[in-house]
Amino acid sequence: MAQKGARPYDRIGEQVFAKVDKINAELFTLTYGSIVTQLVKDYEDLGEVNTQLEKMGYNIGVRLIEEFLARSNVGRCADFTETAEVVAKVGFKMFLGITANVTDWDAEKKEFSLVLDDNPLTEFVELPESYNKLWYANILCGVIRGALEMVQMKVEATYVKCVLHGHDASEIRVVLKEILTDEIPASMRDE
Amino acid sequence: MGIKVVCASVIGKSNNPLYIRCFDNTEEPLKFHYIVHSALDVVEEKSTAKKGASLDLYLGMLYPTEDYRVYGYTTNSKIKFIIVVQEDGDSHDQAIKNFFRKFHVLYANTVANPFYTPDDLITSRKFNEELEKQVKTV
């Protein structure tokens, strides 16, 4: 059952990746790096930097989802497990050129882990000693949250492991909070 | 093969040392610091002499001492790499050039770290480990 959806999504991911425009990886990495260092200088509190990165990611995600749906032609997902596969194999492949692995489902299939072996955002980066609280690529958590909110799923995504902290792979934990019915999404309500 | 890199250093624009690492435990590190420092004069000489002429980043052998030879390599951003090697027999110019090229790439990767400001001391652990690996396989 777990393998069933896996193969087609890999292939879809690669097909879409081949069609989209590419950008120089170093330029991308250096740009993101300077965003993070500037945020660190401005906010000084690393927890706050994490929050800001997540917010930025959210804003990216709500827009990115449209591009994704238009390009990838992926139909409706039957359930959350399929959503996870699509995000990991097609979404990540299309925008970052990497595929993530979906692991560690909980009993009710409402939580999973996305494991990233390598991440273009963190290429060449080494965190100084005192930066243990910083989740460098936290923007990805925001992107996931924003994008899924636009397809009626309210999730929380947080980093649990990061290669920059010494772990061998990065891991984002995604938790489904609720399926949204026809309510106005939070982003358009007040802020 | 007969080459052993005993000291590798990165010197900044104003001849400030950014990184000096000695791989030979039998010698006083201060001796290598002194050798590298004196080599800087020769680097100056070579780079001003070749004005307008060459695009050579590799400066070749700077000067020999009793047991060692000193080689230099400069970049257009005025960063200099100076290494002290212990060689028996003929100079293995090609191998040294290759080493410098890899050293340069390693330096560029370290500078790409957004948390590193150019002209800072290089404290990157990755840089240290990679350099060790390269020194072993010269």
Largest sheet of chain A: 4 strands, antiparallel
- Strand composition percent of chain A: 5-15%
- pLDDT average of chain A, as an integer? 89
Helix content of chain B: 25-40%
CA-CA gap between termini of chain A = 42 Å
Large-scale geometry of chain B: globular
Strand order across the largest sheet of chain A: 1-2-4-3
Q: Biggest chain pair contact, residues each? A: A-B, 15 and 10 residues
Beta-strand portion of chain B reads 25-35%
Helix content of chain A: 40-55%
The Rg value of chain B, from CA coordinates, equals 14 Å
Structural class of chain B: alpha+beta
Question: Concise description?
Answer:
By secondary structure, chain A is of the alpha+beta class.
Name some characteristics of this structure.
heterodimer; A: 191 residues; alpha+beta; four-stranded antiparallel sheet; 6 helices; B: 138 residues; five-stranded antiparallel sheet; 5 strands
Can you characterise this structure?
The complex is a heterodimer of chains A (191) and B (138). With 191 residues, chain A is an alpha+beta fold. Helix content of chain A is 49%, strand content 15%. Chain A has six helices and four strands, in the order ααααββαββα. In chain A, a hairpin with an 8-residue loop joins strand 3 (153-161) and strand 4 (170-179). Chain B has 138 residues and is α+β, with helices and mostly antiparallel strands. In chain B, helix 2 packs antiparallel against helix 3. The termini of chain B are close together. Chain A binds chain B through residues 26, 29-30, 32-34, 36-37, 123-128, 131, and chain B through 109-110, 112-116, 124-126.
